[in-house]
């Protein structure tokens, strides 16, 4: 049965089976049962087609009241780990995979749920991330482990106290609460005896920043190949992934990237994790789609390897290096049992000793918030303009040049109708001019894959990164509010000053982490946009040089008349 719905995010269609929807637009859904995470329906402009189920809310009217219940559609529902995920349009939860993954088969042989993996001596007590203490934790020089953390203790709770006196947020669905940062700031996250990983924030010339990885690396994604299993019943695309510091390739499917993405979201609450390329309901094995997905996975991987924290994550190392099926399953489950996620991730941070006034930090974050909003708007505008230009290249420009070429050909044919006064050389030159403009039309149609497609890929990556920041900034805003509330209670004699100082101290950790992430974003966007603009301009210059060469060759045909 059909149902009314409202779009909660903007979606731009990329093929003829899909339709575009705008935020807050009223929609009609033909069937509430989504297919592979997509609804079929109609937008307010009367266009019919597919759009992502996670981008809309179904509007249901409760039968026992006059209240309209706007609840997220089943395809967008959250799993048990939803408290750790920011509510962004591209956030793909593990609970969605059974109907949203484009090559889902219940993990089949990749991780058979019934398979029991023996990880060795069960008498040894497990350490952080599920590792036994006596086994080597990592061979990656970019991952740093330590048995006892030498870091500023983040909690100031006595063992006898049961939580902070500062009130909790009434909205338990806010990202501040769901991420666990509220519990961390209030001191309700106990310090663990051993922390086997640490991430350092240092003071740079422009403020806090993540400490760079001592041995940076890159990673290539190549050779997307269609594979089959179960005697051809199941088909999927496999990518060859080769990290530079091992030079040993591993082969990964999209679902493997999706698993890693979910682990990153689950763990790194104050980091803007880049979104994966979006799924597509139809045409998954078409050459153009496969090529587009590969390009965007490459950008995603480049961002991962360039991030000082994400690149050091043990689960990322496992994704890049493990080629053995049994070890893969063991490492996968080990990553899923990682205890240092969400609020506990904050315990792994080592922050500088420099004092920062919280009001100055708040003003700096407000300034970044305004910047991020403006950049998001400008990226969206450039995306719309570039997308429209692609359509013109593929359609309008090609047709106009073809029409011009046909018109020149028609003139040439007319000149041939009076043989005594016609010049074959002249007619051939005019006819060749027509063919030249037809060729130029084809050149325009081919050009986007050399420049505009790559620009749109980069803009899509940054749309995802920018979409994460409102929720991340909300974490800091919530922490600031708790500091102010605790200080007020301390001034009124309702809270011990030591407890208020502890809340302020933990708020500093959140602030340092957010500023470090802001600093990395600024640094990386300059690199990325410089590369994007240079590549676009080079391709544009080369394109118009080819056009000029065609025109000059045609012009020379008239010189000998």
UniProtKB/TrEMBL annotation:
Question: What is this protein's record name?
Answer: Sorting nexin
Q: Where in the cell is it found?
A: Cytoplasmic vesicle membrane
**Spans annotated as Disordered:** 78-164
| SMART domains (UniProt xref) | PX, SH3
Q: Where is the composition biased (Polar residues)?
A: 79-99
Gene Ontology CC annotations of this record? cytoplasmic vesicle membrane; plasma membrane
GO molecular-function terms, A-Z:
phosphatidylinositol binding
Specify residue ranges for compositional bias: Basic and acidic residues: 112-124
Q: What organism is this sequence from?
A: Collichthys lucidus (Big head croaker)
Q: Which InterPro entries match?
A: AH/BAR_dom_sf, PX_dom, PX_dom_sf, SH3-like_dom_sf, SH3_domain, Snx9_fam, Sorting_nexin_WASP-bd-dom
**Family assignment?**
Belongs to the sorting nexin family.
């Amino acid at each position: 049965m059909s149902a009314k719905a409202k779009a909660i995010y903007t979606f731009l269609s990329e093929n003829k089976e899909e339709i575009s929807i705008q935020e807050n637009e009223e929609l009609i859904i033909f069937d509430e049962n989504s297919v592979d995470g997509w609804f079929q329906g109609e937008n307010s402009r009367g266009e019919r087609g597919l759009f992502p189920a996670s981008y809309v809310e179904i509007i249901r009217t409760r039968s026992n009241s006059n209240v309209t219940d706007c609840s997220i559609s089943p395809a967008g529902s959250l799993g048990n780990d939803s408290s750790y995920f920011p509510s962004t349009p591209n956030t793909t939860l593990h609970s969605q995979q059974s109907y949203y993954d484009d090559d889902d088969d219940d993990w089949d042989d990749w991780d058979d749920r019934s398979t029991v993996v023996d990880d060795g001596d069960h008498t040894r007590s497990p350490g952080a991330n599920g590792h036994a203490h006596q086994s080597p934790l990592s061979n990656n020089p970019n991952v740093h482990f330590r048995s006892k953390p030498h870091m500023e203790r983040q909690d100031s709770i006595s063992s006898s106290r049961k939580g902070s006196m500062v009130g909790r947020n009434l909205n338990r669905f806010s990202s501040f609460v769901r991420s666990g940062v509220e519990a961390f700031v209030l001191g309700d996250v106990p310090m663990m005896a051993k922390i086997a990983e640490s991430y350092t924030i240092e003071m740079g010339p422009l403020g806090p920043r993540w400490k760079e990885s001592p041995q940076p690396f890159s990673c290539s994604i190549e050779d997307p190949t269609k594979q089959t299993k179960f005697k051809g019943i199941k088909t999927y695309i496999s990518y060859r992934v080769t990290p530079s510091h091992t030079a040993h390739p591993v082969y990964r499917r999209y679902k493997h990237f999706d698993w890693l993405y979910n682990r990153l979201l689950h763990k790194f609450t104050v980091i803007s994790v880049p979104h994966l390329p979006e799924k597509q309901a139809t045409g998954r094995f078409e050459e153009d789609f496969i090529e587009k997905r590969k390009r965007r996975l490459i950008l995603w991987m480049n961002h991962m390897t360039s991030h000082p924290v994400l690149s050091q994550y043990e689960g990322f190392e496992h994704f890049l290096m493990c080629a053995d099926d049994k070890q893969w399953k063991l490492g996968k489950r080990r990553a899923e049992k990682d205890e240092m996620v969400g609020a506990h991730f904050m315990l792994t941070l080592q922050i500088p000793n420099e004092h920062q006034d919280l009001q100055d930090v708040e003003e700096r974050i407000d300034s970044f918030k305004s910047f991020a909003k403006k950049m998001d708007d400008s990226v969206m505008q450039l995306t719309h303009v570039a997308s429209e230009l692609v359509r013109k290249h593929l359609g309008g420009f090609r047709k106009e040049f073809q029409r011009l070429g046909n018109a020149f050909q028609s003139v040439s044919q007319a000149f041939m109708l009076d043989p005594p006064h016609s010049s074959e050389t002249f007619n051939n030159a005019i006819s060749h001019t027509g063919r030249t403009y037809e060729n130029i039309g084809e050149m325009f149609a081919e050009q986007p894959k050399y420049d505009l497609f790559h620009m749109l890929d980069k803009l899509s990556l940054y749309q995802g990164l920018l979409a994460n920041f409102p929720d991340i900034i909300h974490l800091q805003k919530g922490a600031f509010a708790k500091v102010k509330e605790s200080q007020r209670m301390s001034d009124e004699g309702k809270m011990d000053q030591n407890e208020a100082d502890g809340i302020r101290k933990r708020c500093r950790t959140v602030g340092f982490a957010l500023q470090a992430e802001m600093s990395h974003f600024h640094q990386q966007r300059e690199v990325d946009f410089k590369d994007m603009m240079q590549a676009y301009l080079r391709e544009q210059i080369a394109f118009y040089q080819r056009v000029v060469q065609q025109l000059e060759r045609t012009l020379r045909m008239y010189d000998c008349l």
